[in-house]
Amino acid sequence: MNSEIFSIREKLKASLKPGRYEHSLSVSFTCMALAMRYGYDLDKAELAGLLHDCAKCYDNNSIIAACRNSGMELTEGELQAPSIIHSRLGARMAEEKFGVNDPEILSAIACHTTGKPDMSLLDKILYIADYIEPRRYKIKDLPAIRRLAFEDLDQVIAFITSRPKPLALYLFTTDHDTERTVLERVSFGGGCVNDTVMHLTTPKLPFGGVGNSGMGAYHGKRSFETFSHQKSILDKSQIVDIPVRYQPYRMWKKAVIRLIGTK
User: Fold this and answer.
1) Is 3 exposed, middle or buried (0-12, 13-18, 19+ CB in 10 A)?
2) In a designed cystine with 206, which of 7, 32, 128, 222 is the match (CB 3.0 to 4.6 A)?
3) Are 242 and 259 in contact (CB under 8 A)?
4) pLDDT computed for residue 43 by the predictor
5) How far, in Å, CA of 108 to CA of 127, rounded?
6) pTM of the model
7) Which sign, positive or negative, has the C-alpha torsion 218, 224, 229, 234?
């Protein structure tokens, strides 16, 4: 057992809400169970599961500010769906706040919400453990997915990610953890919590689909951007032209290029 795990638990418990902390423990134990099944390092699996949601101490606005303060660049998609940002920020916090420097653990935390191509064994373990942990109960076909998780990890990931992405999703719940889980895990064009259709009525919310349900978005500024072409122009002065740009690339030019590339 990692000798520091208890101090990490106490530090994490102080920063997360009780329900989120209990979820983190549950994911951690599930990671260890899957690690035993597939022959992976138990300590790494436990730590990845424990810290996977360490950035969940922020609300949407605060997490965007925290990312910008730490120098993290956010994509337009992440800004539109800030609930998925916690995985990337969590990897950075695990390293800087909790002293984790293992690249496999940091990778698993960073992709546990969205997955990624060529996932490592730990990436898969954490991605699935977060989906099937014992406190989950509202996901369709969950008992079958849990059984399959201990038979074939790749089949489980394929099962989770293969379902069609809807144009809209309407969720009715008073459980905040359920709300966060659904909004993080399910890819869809747009939707409402405890209402229907009303997200179409505000021009401040972009509306569009994902994959088969449509591409792009419209409403207000988004409509203008969707149907506009952004022409890219680089206007270079003719006063100065650096010869290092042009062939032949002699040794001194390569040295200058390497020097510039390290700045």
Assistant:
1) exposed
2) 222
3) no
4) 94
5) 8
6) 0.62
7) negative
φ/ψ (deg, to 5) at 193: -110, 125
Q: How buried is 7 (Cβ within 10 angstroms: 0-12 exposed, 13-18 middle, 19+ buried)?
A: exposed
Whose structure tokens read 């990610």? Answer: 161
Check residue 52 and report its DSSP letter.
T
Sign of the torsion angle spanned by Cα atoms 33, 118, 90, 142: negative
Q: Are 1 and 50 in contact (CB under 8 A)?
A: no
Largest Cα–Cα distance of the chain, in whole Å? Answer: 70
Task: Tell me the C-alpha distance between 97 and 70, whole Å.
Answer: 13
Q: What is the pLDDT of residues 137-178, one digit of tens each?
A: 777 778 888 888 888 888 877 777 777 777 888 888 787 776
Q: What is the Cα–Cα distance from 29 to 146, expressed in whole angstroms? A: 14
Residues 45-65 pLDDT 10s: 999 999 999 998 888 788 888
Amino acid at position 187, single letter: S
Q: Is residue 100 within 8 Å of residue 51, measured between CB atoms?
A: yes
Q: Name, in order, each residue with C-beta under 8 angstroms of 249's C-beta and a sequence gap of 6 or more.
A: 257
